[in-house]
Amino acid sequence: MPIRIGTSERDGTFHSQGRALKAVLDRQPSLAPVDVLTSDTASVENANRLHRGEIEFGFMASNWIGRARKGEVPFQSRIDIRMAAPMNAGPLFFIVRADAPLRSMADLHGRRIAVGPEHSGMVQHVHTIFGVLGLAFSDFTPIYLDFAAGAQALKHGEVDIQFQCPIPNKVMTALSETADIRVLPYAPGQLEAVLGAVSFYRRTVMRNGAFRGLDSDVPQVAVVNVLATHARVADAVVRDAVSAVLANAGELGRLNPLFGGLGDLFLPLKHDGAGALEFGGVRLHPGAVRAYREAGLLTG
User: Fold this and answer.
1) Which of 35, 110, 144, 198 is disulfide-compatible with 118, CB 3.0–4.6 A?
2) Which is it for strands 161-164 and 81-97: parallel, antiparallel or unpaired?
3) 244-253 b/e with 16+ CB inside 10 Å = b?
């Protein structure tokens, strides 16, 4: 049966991943043709589309799926959402101008920070990270700007810090080519505290040379972005889609660098079981469980 995949705004990260995923899934007779749909609000709208039966799969950041399951704000009712597969682990990081006096994430008090559009997933991440670090929004000045506007504000000295995610992204690359910037590292113990407190984050390393101004490896947190589905979607459809992702993880990485290291995101299934991918208490779809068992990633 033809399937529909909800992504993000055109040329956004989820949309670019969706186009690569379409290239792989279109080769599966049981799934083709695959329709990639854009979305202005990405994770939230995709969850609502799953609820309404308008799509079979949707790209989401894993910090949203538990809220969708519970019907927490901004969702108006509980959504019978299910996990299909991880898609990537996107670094979440703070950038400053190269000449800024800020040296680590311990230096944020009293600063002007571009945190993303108000009520966005980016702002939710800032609340989550700063909550662990003991930093209240009253301890600094939050500036609610999207990526592009926030980058320009940083470039022109209108904010001190900008929150960015992930790499590669066009705004970050363009900014680094026209302004001298650097990534703000965590102070000793801070990164470990965040990773220990938040189940949907993973440790990642932003590699030297990924963009101009990143001149050393910098450990950061990464949010796992996922392909979600709905309980009503047929087991065979989910099984075939997840099996295709597993079989073509390397090709997906060649098609889109955001899929780099995709295969590694499945490995925790081997020692932690299904719970390794059940972020926010959202269970794996039975079709996904079947695919992981057939691939030898799940036993029992």
Assistant:
1) 144
2) antiparallel
3) bbbebbeebb
As a whole number of angstroms, the distance between CA 86 and CA 38 comes to: 19
Inter-axis angle of helices 121-133 and 62-70, nearest 10: 100
- What's the predicted TM-score (pTM) here? 0.85
pLDDT tens digit sequence for 131-180 = 999 999 999 999 999 888 999 999 999 999 999 988 878 889 999 999 99
Indicate whether 18 and 54 sit together in one domain: yes
Token digits of residue 206: 């932003």
Nearest to 181 by CA among 162, 198, 166, 194: 162
Residues 218 and 229 in one domain: no
Q: Among residues 196, 223, 250, which one ends one of the domains?
A: 223
Total structural domains within the chain:
2
Query: Residue 27: which domain range?
Result: 3-89+224-294
Residue 266: exposure state from Cβ atoms within 10 A (0-12, 13-18, ≥19)? buried
Burial of 76 (0-12, 13-18, 19+ CB in 10 A): exposed
